[in-house]
Amino acid sequence: MFRVQHLLFGLAFASLLASRVVAAPTPEATASGNQQQIEDLKDRLATKVAELRQSQRRAIVGTVKAVSVSTATIETKTKDIKIELTDDIVIVQVLKGKRTELTLDDLAKGDNVVVFGEYDTTLDLLKAKVIFIQSASVVQRFAGTVKEVDTEQFTITIATSDNKTIIVDIEKATKITLWDGQKLAKGGFTKLAVGNSVHVVGTPVPKKENRISALRILDIGNVTNAPTAAPEEPTPTVKTTPKSTPTPTP
User: Fold this and answer.
1) Rounded to whole angstroms, how far apart are CA atoms 142 and 145?
2) Domains along the sequence of the chain with CATH
3) How many CB atoms lie within 10 A of CB 126?
4) Does the global pTM surpass 0.85?
5) How far apart are CA 30 and CA 187, in angstroms?
6) Which residue stretches does the UniProt record annotate as biased composition, category Low complexity (predicted)?
């Protein structure tokens, strides 16, 4: 009886030990699990890199070639790039020295622009975030004769030597200098008169042909003796008083 109990106890202990040995992970199993985790990490990194390569932050400079409701084509030095236009896009331009926010309706063919956004290499499409409209051209200089002064709009109309008519906007920052043949003096809008010869430095007004926003104006006066506008004097009228005719007496 004692031997039987010993035998049963030995078999139970052996069975328990065997089960624990089977459940314990082997070195090969542990290595295999770690390798799987490494492979999963590699896959996630590769996916992230692919996404970054597919969509890259980019800025392009060029001229608007075409505009539709949802897209625009920008002509750059190397190729034409299609950009996506969304409702939340920001369009800005510096107008009269002030940063002004515009709308998609203000974007037009021929505009010089800088576009910032996310470039999708797969679709070959730039998803625009911000469009900055640049000035049409650099600073311009010209000379001519003042033909009209508009005191309400603060503009002067100038006729140039090549028979062009240019409207000049006088801004708050416009510097006007007068030259009387001997010295220079600070001037103002009220000193500009029809018939005066002027030299103007300014920048083109966007989307307005032959219109300049003046930076500096040099007024050298009426050197050509051109006629200036002067108020008309009334012509005096002569009133005649009829003479009384004497009545003959009978």
Assistant:
1) 10
2) 56-133 (2.40.50.140), 140-219 (2.40.50.320)
3) 22
4) no
5) 89
6) 227-244
